[in-house]
Write a structure and sequence with these properties.
It contains 17 helices and 24 strands. It is of the alpha+beta class. It has four domains: 113 residues, 2-Layer Sandwich (Phosphorylase Kinase, domain 1), CATH 3.30.200; 141 residues, Transferase(Phosphotransferase), domain 1; 114 residues, 2-Layer Sandwich (Phosphorylase Kinase, domain 1); 137 residues, Transferase(Phosphotransferase), domain 1, CATH 1.10.510.10. The strands form six sheets. A seven-stranded antiparallel sheet has the order 13-14-18-19-17-16-15. The chain has a six-stranded antiparallel sheet with strand order 1-6-7-4-3-2. Strands 5-11-10-8 form a four-stranded mixed sheet. A hairpin with a 3-residue loop joins strand 18 and strand 19. The N terminus is likely disordered.
Length: 547
């Protein structure tokens, strides 16, 4: 096997930066991008960003690695990301917009094939992301800033500059050296996805505004959106036009929010800053990048020989591994039949991959769940998911235990808030039984976690059918475990966060569906045993929360 030394980098450097460049960067760009003599801000398989001091100024270095051949072919014709960012930064400065001053760019090629590109720019002194800044300012300063933000975006679009990745972290606010009128200055960064167009259609303009507004959604009220629109369109527009733009902007913000949740959820399926994946010995592993691959292999090798089996069936086994190199972990093994395994092989996603995706998707949406450590596919009929061991109890066991009245009420309300938040954020779980909700006492309140994730789905159109099914599943508890007062308290808290119908109408529907569910259970047991089971689990007349 032959090895090749890396090709030298071809650089273009600003004349005033040449001496600093020769002293600090030339010949050391890859080491700086790895954190050698610099501070890493971001690092993954394709991009890394590092900051460091040259002695006279603070700069940052961005390296883009080209791994896939389709990207290498693309960059035979099209410029690299570093060259594109250099050009767009120079364009913005010529047009009078604030951005990080470009200092140098370089490319490393092997023949015509691009291997890596480098971009060096001056760090933005005292720059703060837009979202945190908006959360702090109030009153007249906030109103003036939002109008100014709309005016700057309008100038940007009228100049034919389309930033296709315009969010709060790519727009920095500078207060230390303000403009002559005393207002903060705005600085655009991360310009490799900027397009220069002759004319910006309304659809592109609205989407750019929606991207920015949805990225700082928690910091914007309905009145703030109207101020942003008025600053963008001008102070003399009719109110009807302003309201129409604000309505369309809110709709675009909702679509942008769903798109961002979808893309952020699926990041765990590929190489990124937080996650890694590998293939070896016929196994495919997806895991947290912070885990050592050798330690993870040693942990998987102990399954199932050293596991404490917690639950076992023909299709699934759940066990506990203590004292592994990565700590105490819960491992769940999924086994497929021939046909289901074949279908999942065609779809290229095992049940462990589905649980891995669901666990990370819940965390993206701000919902608690045991931290997924790794998903391992063993062939096409076996797969494993490993999660952090959580010292918590299933909801049905905890609520059946000894609880003081105040603690019981707070637990019921915490579960209702968690379920309402799930449904409001488009999380669908066909198996939301009480045994799959883990609870633990945090002292000041209860923490709720969702387990058994392989069937969780994300439907951001708010799945009302599955929401009703979840309420029926949670209502399906023995009367000795959950009283009628507990059920009413759950519904009242749920409807406060997610209002739909009246509480009595909802209670009637849940009552009818719970009774039908119990009847189906009795019929199934009767067919299995050949006789009617003793009516002790659900004494007649006590299933309902209706009264």
């Amino acid at each position: 096997m032959s090895t090749h030394a890396p090709e030298p980098v071809s650089w273009t450097v600003e004349p005033g930066f040449l001496a600093e460049f020769d002293r600090t960067i030339r010949g050391r760009a890859d080491g700086l991008a790895r954190g050698e003599g610099s501070r890493l801000v971001k690092a993954n398989q394709v991009r890394s960003v590092a900051t460091f001091e040259t002695g006279e100024r603070a700069v940052y270095l961005k390296r883009h690695r080209i791994a896939a051949w389709k990207h290498r072919l693309r960059h035979v014709v099209f410029p690299s990301r570093a060259k594109n960012e250099w050009r767009k930064a120079s364009l913005l400065l010529r047009r009078g917009f604030e951005t990080a001053k470009p200092l140098a760019w370089g490319e490393r090629r092997r023949g015509p094939w691009l291997e890596a590109s480098y971009f060096v720019a001056e760090s933005v002194a005292d720059g703060r992301p837009l979202g945190p800044f908006l959360q702090e300012i109030t009153g007249a300063k906030r109103r003036a800033f939002l109008r100014r933000l709309g005016q700057i975006l309008r100038r940007l679009h009228d100049a034919g500059i389309h930033h296709r990745d315009l969010h709060g972290n790519n727009m920095l606010v500078r207060e230390s050296d303000g403009s002559p009128d005393g207002s903060p200055r705005l600085c655009l960064i991360d310009l490799h996805s900027v397009w220069r167009v002759g004319w910006m259609p309304r659809r592109w303009r609205r989407r750019a505004l929606a991207q920015l507004a949805s990225s700082v959604l928690l910091a914007l009220s309905r009145a703030d959106i109207h101020r942003l629109v008025r600053g963008y369109l001008g102070e003399r527009i009719p109110r009807s036009v302003e309201r129409s733009w604000a309505r369309s902007l809110r709709s675009a913000m909702d679509r942008e929010r769903r798109r961002r949740l979808f893309t952020r959820t699926r990041r765990c399926l590929r190489e990124s800053t937080r996650w890694a994946q590998s293939r070896e010995d016929g196994r495919r592993m997806r895991h947290l990048r912070t885990l050592d691959r050798g330690e993870l292999r040693a942990t998987i090798a102990r399954w199932p020989r050293e596991a404490i089996v917690l639950k076992a069936s023909a299709r699934k086994t759940v066990g506990l591994l203590r004292g592994t190199p990565v700590g105490d972990v819960v491992v769940k093994e999924f086994r497929e039949t021939f046909w289901s395994g074949l279908c999942r092989r065609i779809a290229r996603r095992s049940r462990a991959d589905a649980a891995w995706l669901a666990g990370n998707g819940l965390m993206v949406r701000g919902l608690e769940t045991p931290l997924p450590l790794a998903a391992v596919t063993l062939g096409w009929r076996r797969s494993l998911i490993a999660t952090v061991l959580v010292e918590a109890e299933p909801l049905d066991q905890r609520i059946a235990g000894e609880l003081r009245a105040i603690a019981r009420r707070s637990l019921i309300e915490a579960v209702a808030r968690y379920v309402a938040t799930m449904h409001a954020r488009g999380v669908a779980c066909p198996d939301l039984a009480a045994k799959n909700l883990l609870v633990r006492d945090k002292g000041a309140g209860w923490e709720i976690l969702l387990a058994d994730l392989d069937r969780v789905r994300f439907d951001d159109a708010r799945p009302s059918r599955l929401a009703m099914a979840n309420l029926v599943q949670l209502n399906d508890l023995p009367p000795g475990v959950a009283s009628r007062a507990d059920r009413w308290r759950f519904l009242r808290t749920y409807l406060r966060l997610r209002p739909s119908s009246s509480i009595k109408e909802l209670a009637h529907v849940i009552d009818a569906r719970t009774r039908a569910r119990v009847d189906r259970y009795r019929q199934r047991i009767t067919r299995r045993l050949g006789k009617t089971p003793v009516d002790t689990y659900y004494p007649r007349g006590t299933v309902s929360c209706d009264g």
